[in-house]
Amino acid sequence: MKPITLKEAISEELKDKEFAILYEKERIINRIACTVVELRQRQGLTQLELAQKAYTTQPVIARLERGSDSRIPSLELLGRIAHALGKEIVIDFKASQCH
Question: How far apart are CA 46 and CA 90, in angstroms?
């Protein structure tokens, strides 16, 4: 049996519509988490400081940054975080690489 790479395994799984939707959801959550961490650290803010500026709590910021919550953060929360960081939210649709 020929060994299969992770990329090949994921590519095969992405043919399943339900898997593809869940996979994309996880990618979005991860992308949000990484972006918030990077922007917060670049501005020298602690999670608590960002939370206060965004009118939320430190545990909410920590959960968002870990990407461990199965829910995608609300646009309301993301808007407050963006405003607190002096940024704006940009939503874009790109052509899907899977079919």
Answer: 24
